[in-house]
Structure formats: C-alpha cells, structure tokens
Specification:
Number of helices: 4
Order of helices and strands: HHHH
Strand content: under 5%
Number of strands: 0
Helix content: over 70%
Shape: elongated
Structural class: mainly alpha
Keywords: Membrane, Transmembrane, Transmembrane helix
Largest sheet: none
Length: about 120
C-alpha cells in the first residue's frame, strides 16, 4: 500500500440506522421498558420495601433516559439553528469564513425581527 492510497473506515450502524438514531431508539426503548417494569412490579407483586425500591430504581432510570432524549433533541435543535457557525468553524479559506459569517448574521437578524411577531401571535 502506498502513501496515496486512501483507507475508508466503515461507519458503525445498528440495524441500518446511524449511531445517533440507534442511540435514540435504544434510549426510548429503555425508558418504555423501565416504566412498564415499574408498573408491573407495583401491580403484580405484593407491596414490600424491596418492591418499592425496585419501582423507584426503574422510575429513576426511565426519568434519566427521558432527560437524555431531551438533551439529544436540544442538541439537534441547536445544531440546526447554528449550522452556519459550525461551517464557520470548519472553513478552510477566508472567503468561506466571510460567507458563512454573513449568512449567520443575516439569519440572526431575521430571527430577531421575527420575535415580536411571534410574541404577538402566540401570547
């Protein structure tokens, strides 16, 4: 193999899904399973301290996975909102950087102009 050969690493995928999508699917499944197990423990087993502890553990795990899903959704939202900023950080020339900075400035101005309209319509 020479220095000019390019080695392409295969991206990991789970059932044909991207790593991010697979993570979100598994987290949602974990939240659902934890909630179902917590309810089943409460309904099918006789009440005791150990059952209460297990139900509490399952509910905490479900809450943590839902918080993780919320954080993933927020990062996706901010990635869409600040896409020009990520382009700016990865640009390789001064012209690209100036174009992306201009695009981001215009987008910010547009959003700032829309805020009073949104407040008036939705409040």
């Amino acid at each position: 193999m020479s220095m000019m050969d390019i080695q392409v690493e295969k991206q990991y995928s789970f059932c044909g899904l991207s790593l991010r999508c697979a993570t979100q699917c598994c987290t949602a499944a974990q939240a659902l399973i934890c909630l179902v197990l917590g309810v089943l423990y409460r309904v099918l087993l006789e009440p005791s301290v150990i059952v209460n502890i297990l139900v509490g553990i399952h509910l905490v795990c479900a809450a943590l996975s839902l918080v993780f899903l919320l954080l993933m959704a927020l990062t996706s939202l901010f990635a869409v909102m600040f896409l020009p900023l990520s382009f700016l950080q990865q640009s390789h020339s001064l012209g690209e950087a100036a174009g992306m900075l201009t695009l981001q400035f215009m987008q910010r101005n547009l959003v700032e102009q829309m805020l009073p309209v949104m407040e008036h319509c939705f409040v």
